[in-house]
Design goal:
This protein has 293 residues and is α/β, with parallel strands linked by helices. The protein is 49% helix and 16% strand. The radius of gyration is 29 Å and the shape is elongated. The mean pLDDT is 87.
Length: 293
């Protein structure tokens, strides 16, 4: 903050003091706190700085046009401990930008389309078949989740281009707005990433993250190339851990839940079918299936 050498120009003090006391917003401030004239004189520097910088925030269109020395911070006058205090607070544009950054930081979108960033439950198409009931079910999940009640996730099944992924993404954004960490991933690509993680030495940390994240959402399960190793050594332990810890887990799929074991088996061997059935049982225990049309 620039310091003005009033001691060299005492003749200016009276003029500046009068000018400041006639400023509408400053006049209200002085009257509200019953500030004596002598104190105004003593803190001319702060008051002149405020009077100069405050108009820079008026009619500001956004952070990209900010004229303040510290981008996104507006001057604020307070009266504390019998003293005028000039401070700087984040403006509404900076607060909004910070919230967006924090929101994005809470969502890890793996191999997902860009549209998930703007997916919102407020845009839901209630006129479609069963959407109002689904929306009510989703809102019930959030209501229970907020108060710490155990709650099941969703297994959204149905054909292509009916809004399963959008619904999952809208839920992910809502969970993030409640300040919960979310991982939403396109499952077929996640499977390929897990296989390559072996050579990178990141497999265990990747699995642990999916076990521990507040909310896990897997898009298009059943659409991946069948892999016994991923099913038994990756997906199985992740689901078992989340089931026991009652962590929210949601899925979308083009196949009904009861048909999922068939899509996760490579042979007709009894042991193979049993392992796939275990995945089915875990998902059924942690999710309610909703058929979207």
């Amino acid at each position: 903050m620039k310091k003005y050498p009033f001691e060299r120009h005492p003749d200016l003090v009276d003029d500046l003091t009068e000018e400041l006391t006639n400023d509408p917003s400053l006049k209200r401030f002085f009257i509200e706190h019953d500030i004596p004239n002598q104190q105004i004189v003593e803190q001319l520097n702060d008051l002149i700085t405020y009077r100069h910088e405050r108009p820079l925030c008026e009619d500001c269109p956004g952070l990209e046009a900010c004229k303040q020395d510290t981008i996104g911070h507006q001057p604020v006058l307070e009266y504390r401990n019998q003293r005028i205090v000039l401070s700087y607070q984040a403006c509404s544009y900076l607060e909004s930008y910070t919230r967006q950054r924090q929101h994005k930081a809470r969502i890890s979108a793996l191999y997902m389309p860009k549209m998930i960033e703007k997916a919102s439950l407020s845009d839901y198409h209630f006129t479609r078949d069963g959407r109002q009931a689904l929306y009510n079910q989703i809102m019930s999940i959030f209501a229970k989740f907020k108060v710490g009640e155990p709650v099941k996730g969703l297994y959204l099944s149905g054909g292509y281009q009916i809004g399963k992924t959008y619904t999952l993404a809208a839920m992910a954004n809502h969970f993030a707005s409640l300040k919960h960490e979310v991982v939403i991933a396109y499952y077929p690509d996640l499977v390929r990433e897990m296989k390559s993680a072996i050579s990178k030495g990141t497999l265990e940390s990747s699995i642990e993250r999916l076990k521990q994240v507040d909310v896990l959402m897997l898009d298009d399960i059943g659409g991946e190339a069948v892999s016994q190793w991923v099913r038994d050594e990756v997906l199985g332990p992740i689901l078992q851990h989340r089931l026991l810890d009652q962590k929210i887990t949601c899925f979308t799929s083009n196949v009904r839940l009861k048909e999922l074991p068939k899509h996760m088996t490579e042979t007709d061997q009894q042991a193979e079918r049993l392992k796939a059935y275990r995945i089915f049982e875990r998902i059924r225990a942690m999710c309610d299936e909703v058929i979207m049309r």
